[in-house]
Amino acid sequence: MSDIPFEADFERRVVDKLSSVQHLLDSPSYRIAYHDADFIKGDSSRSIRLQLEVSKPDVFMRHLGIRSTVIVFGSARILSRERAESCLREVLSRSSGDSDGVELRDELSRARSAVELSEYYELAKEFAAIVSESNLAREREEVAEGELIHDYVICTGGGPGIMEAANRGASEVDALSVGLNIQLPFEQKPNPYITPELCFQFHYFAVRKLHFMLRAKALVTFPGGFGTFDELFEALTLRQTERMQPIPIIIFGEEFWRQVINFDHLVKTGVIDRSDLELFHFTNSPQEAWEIIKAFHRVN
Fold this sequence. Notes:
Mean pLDDT: 91
CATH class of the domain at 60-80 and 117-297: Alpha Beta
CATH topology of the domain at 60-80 and 117-297: Rossmann fold
Number of helices: 11
Shape: globular
Number of strands: 7
CATH architecture of the domain at 60-80 and 117-297: 3-Layer(aba) Sandwich
Low-confidence stretches: none
Structural class: alpha/beta
């Protein structure tokens, strides 16, 4: 009997086996779990993703010696004075007065408001510079054994507007600053003034908020929209319920905030206590804001 059919059958079975092994190697189940992007991004791995978002910034901040922060919140839409005035000039160049259409009049109104609000960009930048310069001076005195610990580091949401202003103020005095950026349906790139090693991106708002509050020695809020309201009132709630460390909460722009929130009415109707109003301070002075923080924590 010829052995050729046997050899052919053997080769066929070897090919089949090899094909079967390759099929196993290509199976999604065979991927190393932490290399499997589909698995990591799936619903069943949400707790793992949350844990990673908690851990990664913590590792980087510990490595750079970030022990405490000063949080700065505010609108992403507030422009620097220079940019706001430039936008207003551009709109005015297209305006012809009473004959302007509704859209151009609205655009002109917004441009003028942007110039007014730009005051807060400049105040946020000045505040961050004051805090950062003070920290740098103290760090130079406290350096020991080559290990440098950073306290009262400016920390923002990492985007444009007030966030940019605060990171910029720190950057202009050569100080570190943190940016906690987040993925949004609309584009929000990190501003260029964040310390590169301290620029983080989050998917989960809850974890981002955790990192805002975790090391906070103070929270400073400027005018803003829904996001700023959310961040401010979460902090006030955590302080009211004593679920976070005691910190001063400082609000820039008393006129703005009293127009959008009737704090006295909240007291009058009994939904908050009058003592809850002591959880925050109004100011328009960057230096006064820093003095409030220093007095609260008894910092020289």
